[in-house]
Amino acid sequence: MSQILTTFIAVAGTLIGSLLGYQFQKRAADRSERRNAVLAFTAATNEFIRSQHDWWHRQHEEQDGPAHAAARTEAFRIRGQAFQAVHQLRLLVPNDDLHARAEQTIGMIGALHRATDREELRTRSAEARASLNSFIAQASAQIR
User: Which of 61, 66, 101, 139 has the greatest CB tally within 10 Å of its CB?
Assistant: First the structure.
């Protein structure tokens, strides 16, 4: 009887250890996926800001020139990447407020090229970056 009890305890301990190890690994993997989704979004939005600035400068240098057309095309391509990052966030980070903040940030960045002068561009850029920083602060709580 003692040998059966010892075997049962050993098997139960092994099973419990395996289940706990699986749970810890799953949590770590989920956290890593959420962190990567947030990082992909921030990278895409930073690139989107850069492309919007490039578009604005090319537009004010030579509105009908090929550099302006190329900058506009590139800005639209990068905008698509930014929205792809938003969709990745929606899949991996279940927080509607965070999704709304991400879309608000994308909207603010998308309007940068409509600034009428450098001062307005600086103001809009600062607001977009503040929105991105707010997103990062909010997201950091979700990926811990």
Answer: 139
Q: What domains can be seen in the chain, in order of their start residue? A: 32-142 (1.20.120)
62 token code pair: 């030579």
Rounded CA-CA distance 12/10 in Å is: 6
- DSSP assignment letter at 1: -
Reported as a single tens digit per residue, the pLDDT across 2-50 is 888 788 787 777 878 777 777 877 777 688 889 999 999 999 999 999 9
CA atoms of 93 and 127, how far apart (whole Å): 24
pTM: 0.83
